[in-house]
Amino acid sequence: MEDYPRTVLELEARFPDDDACREYLIRLRWPDGFVCPRCAAVEAWSAGRGRLVCRKCRHQTSVTAGTIFHGTRKPLRLWFRAIWQVTSQKTGASAVSVQQALGLGSYLTAWTWLHKLRRAMVRPGRERLQGRVEVDETHIRTEENDGDQSGTPVWVAIGVEEDARGMGRIRLSRIGEPSRGVLHAFVQQAVEPGSVVHTDGRPAYSGLERLGYDHEVTVLAGLEKDAATTLLPHVHRVASLLKRWLLGTHQGAVSPKHLDYYLDEFTFRFNRRRSRSRGKLFYRLLQQAVQVDPSPYGTIIDDSRDHKM
User: Fold this and answer.
1) First-to-last CA distance in the chain?
2) Three-state secondary structure along 17-63?
3) Who wins on pLDDT, 163 or 56?
4) Distance CA 195, CA 193 (A)
5) Range from 27-31, 109-113, 137-141 carrying the lowest mean pLDDT
6) DSSP calls for the chain
7) Pick from 197, 124, 189, 125: which is nearest to 160 by CA?
8) Among 44, 235, 236, 244, whose CB has the most other CB atoms within 10 angstroms?
């Protein structure tokens, strides 16, 4: 049963200290009971400072070990409030707003925390899009070293499910030049075979039938300037919302190196936009945060998603 606070007052009441936070994380990380990360035994006893000791191999661990909270020196109570702020606002939060709201002494701490959380926003083994899916690509202008946005735009591929209410789930990926190999790789990564893939007439999309897709083509060449937004409305709507979010919440201050993780955050929010409770997003992000590997600051600084197509 999903159990999460519905309001900030409930959050404050339920998690007054780190012990309460740890108990909640234990239930999220081991919903069927503790499992030793070394020997897979299922019994442990509690030791001091949040440690768990395996009864079989005596290995010591904690609920935060091997997660995005690994090695943190800040209280878990503070982390929970940061996650609440990130998930309770529809447009998310910038590092500056998190720093100010939590009273963090360093902007760098807030920036690092947000990047750690973005790495937990992609659920391992998530399902591909299916049914009828619009696919297209767009340009995103990102911040250059001098802080402006005058550099070479970055290509982003977009996939959007169609459903009875308009748009379903989405997938976004930073790509290189939109060649046939690049676009075919995106479709295979994002869309379940057997689906209908609706694209424009770009020659690079040809051949999707041989990969197991029903390819529907709308040729836009020679049509009016606004035809694309009418004939492929969903991908253009998502592209517009993405650019507005990057410029609004993040003031366009996104480097190409880290763009992938901002795309993950936008996808996480968009795919859960119909959730009636912000608390459920808090729950989902914490649930995924204890399933992903640690991301030390040095890794974040050096990291550029190596799966760029």
Assistant:
1) 39
2) CHHHHHHHHHHHHCCCCCCCCCCCCCCEEECHHHEEEECCCCCEEEC
3) 56
4) 5
5) 137-141
6) -----SSHHHHHHH-SSHHHHHHHHHHHH-TT----TTT----EEE-GGGEEEETTT--EEETTTTSTTTT--S-HHHHHHHHHHHHHSTT---HHHHHHHHT-S-HHHHHHHHHHHHTTSS-TTPPPB-SEEEEEEEEE----TTSSS-SPPEEEEEEEEEETTEEEEEEEEEESS--HHHHHHHHHHHB-TTSEEEEES-GGGTTGGGGT-EEEEE--TTS-TTHHHHHSHHHHHHHHHHHHHHHHTSTT---GGGHHHHHHHHHHHHTTTT-S-HHHHHHHHHHHHTTS----HHHHHH---TT--
7) 197
8) 235
Two structure tokens written together for 5? 């606070």
Q: Residue 146: its pLDDT value, please?
A: 47
For tokens 């982390």, name the residue.
79
Measure CA 186 to chain center.
Answer: 17
The CATH 3.30.420.10 domain(s) of the chain lie at 132-274
Instruction: Say whether pLDDT at 124 is over 90.
Output: no
Q: Of the CATH numbers 3.30.710.10, 3.30.420.10, 3.10.310.30, 3.40.50.300, which one belongs to the domain with range 132-274?
A: 3.30.420.10
